[in-house]
Amino acid sequence: MARKIIIDTDPGQDDAVAILLALASPELEVLGITAVAGNVPLPLTAKNARIICEVAGRPETPVFAGCDAPLTRPLVSAEHVHGRTGLDGPELWEPEMALQSQHAVDFIIETLRTEPLGKVTLATLGPLTNIGKAFSQAPDIIPNVAEIVAMGGAYFEVGNITPAAEFNIYVDPEAADIVLKSGVKITIMPLDLTHKALVTKRRNDAFRSLGNRTGTFTAEMTEFFERFDKEKYGSEGAPLHDPTVIAYLLAPELFTGRFINVEVETQSDLTLGMTVADWWGVTDRAPNATFMGDIDADGFFTLLTQRLARLP
Ligand code: BDR
Ligand code: CA
Description:
With 312 residues, this protein is α/β, with parallel strands linked by helices. The protein has a single domain, classed as Ribonucleoside hydrolase-like (Inosine-uridine Nucleoside N-ribohydrolase, Chain A), CATH 3.90.245. It has an eight-stranded mixed β-sheet, sandwiched between helices. Helix 2 links the parallel strand 2 and strand 3. The structure holds beta-D-ribofuranose and calcium ion (CA). The site of beta-D-ribofuranose has 15 residues, from helix 1 and helix 6. The site of calcium ion has 7 residues, from loops.
């Protein structure tokens, strides 16, 4: 039986590749895609999520718009990385599929109340605002969540949006704090791991040579997305962050990490949004998350490329 997931996301080229991977994978049943403000403002993330469903030939996938700003702060977005549309690279269009009228937070709450206990996994690819809001508004749903697999945070790599913080956590540290303290089983894909999953030229060429619409679309997105990190880090390719979340659901054996205490800084101006991960076990704070540290990058890109080949 397919594993039921809700994808919470702020597309974003790497979010888009994650959504394509999920829609290409029969092991996963995508109950809905919930958009949040993040890389670009909400109207664009909600639109981009629908464009991606259309690329995948899956316009029946329900897409919901959620929070348009973090719980207590103004939105910080990342057009400098993702471009003005959030999906710069390929030619984009106005999606034909409609947005659902229900608010994403209400959809998350309703789904967790109506699906059988412990059967819905939350795959989060952006700031955790929608999830933090759902957990605060309806704490009864928290024990119903099977697992949260989240892209966010960093320990050894420290920050990308500030010297201390990773973007998804920095944008809404209060929401991340709610999630990390919720007691739900949580697995985190930090920069420590995603910076080992680089889209090299060879890997990008493999997407392009699939010969399908999805392969070309993916290569055009990742080529655009790459330029920023390649210039910044001087690496041979840019990290493909968000698809690691979906790959973990499909092939957890590609990943290794540690079950440790992870907490978020919500006060300091200097280190706001930093994930303080007790990787070395130097405190007696209770473990609350599996913090991934390593990935079989070739295995990950092989899985991704094989799956994308199945789409139109
Ligand atoms: C995360 O921030 C966004 O720019 C990406 O989509 C990813 O979710 C990486 O820090
Ligand atoms: Ca994202």
